[in-house]
Amino acid sequence: MADRNRKIIKFHKGSQFNIGVIIFLIILVYMLYNIFQYFTTERVAVYEISQGTIAQNNTFTGVILREEKIYNTDASGYITYYNRDATKVGVNSYVYSVDETGHFYQDMLAKNDGTLFSEKSFYDGLEKTAEEFVLNYSDENFYQVYAFQYDMEAALMETISENALSGLSENGGNYNGLHARRAPEPGIVVYHTDGLENVTLENFNKDIFDKSAHVKNNLMTREQVSAGEPAFKLITSEIWDLLIPIDEQLAANLAENTVLQIKFKKDDSTAWGSSRIITKDGDSYLALNFQSAGLRYATERYLEVELLLSDTSGLKIPNTALTEKSFFLVPKDYVTKGGADNSNGVMYRYEDKDGNFETSFVAVAVAQEKNNMYYIAAEQLQSGDILLKPDSKETYKLQKQDSLQGVYNINRGYAVFRKVEILFQNEEYSIVNKGTSYGISLYDHIALDASTIQENEIIQ
User: Which residues contact 34 (CB under 8 A, 6 or more apart)?
Assistant: First the structure.
């Protein structure tokens, strides 16, 4: 009975607060948020500055410009030359003759009687000319075939002409209608034309660098000439110029040079030439002047040369990291020292809310010095602000600005502009000076692509 009358009391279970589940959910949400941020936020690629060099391709093809005159014939007939191509002649030296009847010309050919080319050295020269042509031939430069033809024909005619002079001295007076012509002045006689004889550093244009448009016209291969046609060319000075087209960056790099050493690829000889940069129609050219070797290259118009410049070394950065920033230009007298750390700054004059003029010291970053001006930057200053000259009542209004090239340094977790001075640049990288004030240092971290961030932006 006792068991029957016993009352059973049920207790309701209270809700249990599980702190572990809450913490887990918080961590899960945080992780999901960070994963979302990671995949949706644009990351700034970082580049660590290293020291390096950029090998320069310093091989160019230039155009020779010199003092040269073309002399025309004054009679028609068979022409005979009396000097090898590219040899010095004195005033009144025989250069050529024109035979109206052809008797003298035919007698000179018959006199050779097949023995003219008996010397092995002559054939060695022809073989060398042919070998050079084969090694350097390219379908893209087919016009070189005509230059090769000129060289071979000129070599043959030079050998024939060597014996003609003795024939002229012995019995030239026995031929009617034979007109012998002498050099009117001393110089180097050349037997070809190319249309560039009157080009100078003052009147040239970029078309002169088109080799295919200025192929040599060989004068020695003609048997007959008409009055008024070119007979020969005379180079009247051994001083000559070599004009080389270059890019704007190389022109800037060489602007301070007055002399340069080069290597002539034709014979691997070297020479020093006085140099200067010429800008014409928006293009840059290197002009080299030489006082000698005019005879060595008398038959050449185009010369391949190598500028003997040392590779540029410094801090190597990608060109994508480069950017520009505008700086205020302030007279040096307006920049002073002040503040708790005795830093550079200016005295900024402003009007308070009561209309009174007040002056305060504003720290500035001096990025560059140019003539009597400083390039300064400060977040508190803007165009139109008035600066007060220390110890004076003179004022200066901030207006004039100029841009400097630089990169964004991100060592501190946010973007800070730093100036660079480019020493050399190619399509991908720049070599900059490592001793620049307000600049960068070895192992600094910079933004790889300056276009993706702004100054003072916090780096994720």
Answer: none
Q: Say what angle helices 120-136 and 144-171 make with each other, to 10 degrees.
A: 160
> Residue 299 and residue 270: Cα distance in Å, rounded?
18
Which residues have C-beta within 8 Å of that of residue 352, sequence separation ≥ 6?
358
Please name the residue that has the structure tokens 């200053």: 381
Mean pLDDT for the chain overall: 84
Placement of tokens 């800037």 in the chain: 252
Is 281 strand, coil or helix? coil
Distance of alpha carbon 231 from alpha carbon 29, whole angstroms: 95
**Least confident piece of the model among 270-284, 317-331, 341-355:** 341-355
Distance CA 98, CA 149 (A): 24
Task: Give the residue from 366, 347, 368 showing the smallest Cα distance to 358.
Answer: 347
What is residue 277's DSSP assignment? E
How far apart are alpha carbons 255 and 253 in whole angstroms?
6
Tokens 């945080």 correspond to what residue?
A: 30
Count CB atoms within 10 A of the CB of residue 376.
23
For the entire predicted model, the pTM comes to 0.59
User: How many residues are present in the chain?
Assistant: 460
Task: Give the number of other Cβ atoms within 10 Å of residue 70's Cβ.
Answer: 14
